[in-house]
Amino acid sequence: MSPAMLGFTGIIALLALLALRIPVALATGGIAIAGFALSAVLSDAGMTQTFATIPPMLSDVLQADVVAMVMLFVTLGNIAFYAGISTRIYDAAQVWLRAVPGGLAMASVLGCGGFAAISGSSVGCASTMGRICVPEMLRHGYDPRLATSSVAVGGTLGSLIPPSVLFILYGLLSGQPIARLFIAGLLPGLLSLAGMLAVILWWIREEPGIAPDPGPAGASRAEATLALWPPLVLLAIIIGGLYSGLLSPLTAAAVCVGIALAIGVLHHRLSAAMLWIVFRDSAVQGASLLLIVVTATLFLGLVQQSGAGMVLAEWARFGGLPALTVVALAAAACLVLGMFIEPLGILVLAMPVMVPLMQVYGMDPIWFGVILVKLLEIALITPPVGLNVFVIGSVTRDIAVDRIFAGVARFLLVDMLVLVVLILFPVLSTLLPASMTL
Questions:
Q1: 124-145 burial, b if ≥16 CB within 10 A, otherwise e?
Q2: Domain range spanning residue 102?
Q3: Looking at the 3D structure of the chain, how many domains does it have?
Q4: pLDDT tens column, 289-317
Q5: What's the pTM value of the predicted model, to 2 decimals?
Q6: Which of 299, 305, 382, 437 could cross-link 338 (Cys pair, CB 3.0–4.6 Å)?
């Protein structure tokens, strides 16, 4: 077996395991270790020499500042959740937009985007906001399709708006600056948000009865706006600090954790028992994320050593495929994979192939990272897997999943349009990172 064939075999094996719902870290790590062992057997190098290449691969991703950054961003999300900071954008938006047709659905999209951005978890957002927003809309007579789908798609905004876990993983695996990736997602994230709000307006215009007037809100707009300051401060520190170059991702995460912790304690939302839960959950989630990073790095190293990704990239170039065609084919492959595999699995599976393609075609890795994360965002609501859809279905048990997918289909059309715009106009992804102060 040639080295390239070994690499292709590893990719196919990983695809099969992920499709069978084997955990990402277990599948990736198992194939990577088995691949290195088989490589040692097939080559003249011994086991000791082959496995000696592993520590250098992990040296970059296991640096103290990288580990600390991942743990701090995970902790920030948990503190913001338990301190009630993550839901404040929704609370304010549903007061301000209540009189607008479909205002509660729009508020849900905005609230989910804010929650997912601060927490860094799109699925966690769908679970929490599904329990808050969907019952509220149903109580006021909203159509179940609109009520559930607006929350499912709103949660995906956290994939693009910083601090995004997917951008962190992409940055660690591709070697790109995480600060630039965070800022690169801003304009695409806002474009996606505008598309979602446009879908709601269009849907209500076509079917006016799906979103009745909910009546006046219990709080005034001034009160709602005043209560909005904690999440806005956190987002301003992350985005403003990174864009200006005053803060690194590690420093921004540390500052925000300190501020969120102080807010939670001063508002009596974080007791000693609650803090124990916060740090316990953060340790488990952070360790799981770092384990995926480690195993994905090993798998990426295995495929890179085999040369399989470069063989595929050279084949595409010598075959005369234009760069735009290659991107379109890669996007189509990710969309298909999104029907069967969770986003983290797609990211791990795609990187060994995408990195050589970027190198051979001279693509901007920041722009390509935005495209890839946008594809993973779409995968969260793509049938038949659509993790966000099934999460919403699990917290609103009276609504069938097929009805949620029926509502999500309208948003998917606009998401695909946004994806095409991002592919055709890379400046939307590269403008802000290029102007950053370093």
A1: bbbbbbbebbbebbbeeebbbb
A2: 3-434
A3: 1
A4: 888 888 888 888 888 888 887 888 888 87
A5: 0.89
A6: 382
